[in-house]
Amino acid sequence: MDSAPAVERVAFFRESARIYAAVAETDRFHHHEALYWATREREHAQAAQAELDRGKGVARVARHA
Fold first, then answer.
1. What's residue 64's pLDDT?
2. What residue ranges of the chain have pLDDT lower than 50?
3. Which of 24, 25, 39, 53 could form a disulfide with 34 if both were Cys (CB 3.0 to 4.6 A apart)?
4. Burial track 12-24 (b if 16+ CB lie within 10 A, e otherwise)
């Protein structure tokens, strides 16, 4: 995944975080585990966005609703 362009990584990690957050809400037996992974994926998305900000002047990737 690190070889993908930062813009693709941002989109991937944001979508992954969204899915894990949804799992946390629907699967109570895995709630805390899914919250952990949602947070981790959000952090990866933020790091990739920061990479974009440094490299291309503040190009923001559109967030999904």
1. 60
2. 57
3. 24
4. bbbebbbebbebb
Q: How far apart are CA 5 and CA 7, in angstroms?
A: 5
Q: Which amino acid is at 59?
A: A
Q: For the whole prediction, is pTM greater than 0.85?
A: no
pLDDT value of residue 42:
98
Q: What is the DSSP string of the chain?
A: -TTS-HHHHHHHHHHHHHHHHHHHHH-GGGHHHHHHHHHHHHHHHHHHHHHHHHHHSS-PPPPP-
